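[Structure tokenization] protein backbone as discrete codes

[Encoding] learned vocabulary of local backbone shapes

[Begin record] amino acids and matching fold tokens:

___
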Amino acid sequence: MKKYFILLIPLILLCINFRSYSQDIIVEKFSKIPKYVDGCGCFFYLKKSDENKNYYIFVSSGGNAAMKIDGSIQRLKEITEDYSNGYYGEFSNNYYEVIIKGKKTGKGYESTNYKGKITVRNKQTAAEITINFIGDCGC
């Protein structure tokens, strides 16, 4: 019995260690926009019903952005943003890099509508997730 127990200990430790370093990234909706994202900017959602309820997956304004990644709101800094051919944006902090590519789908009075993909990469583990979005940029 002791032999089996001794053989199980490394297996149990390996499983615990593997679980601690999970490669998954979880992007969640949030409804409260942080104070550092203020004014005109971009507001992206998973789907139209989320837009109607103000459930964001990404917001940005004035060089600051926010996403809820792995259970907490991450403050991101704008690296680059370009509207010349649709929407392209790169944002980053110490832990995550976010790349957004969107196509123009319409234009409102003071905003432009987009749909596209958001890719989030964990800088420490290189884990990556890509999700679809809809939303708009403007005032």
User: Anything to note?
Assistant: Confidence is low (pLDDT under 50) at residues 4-8, 10-22. The longest strand covers residues 96-107. The chain has two helices and nine strands.
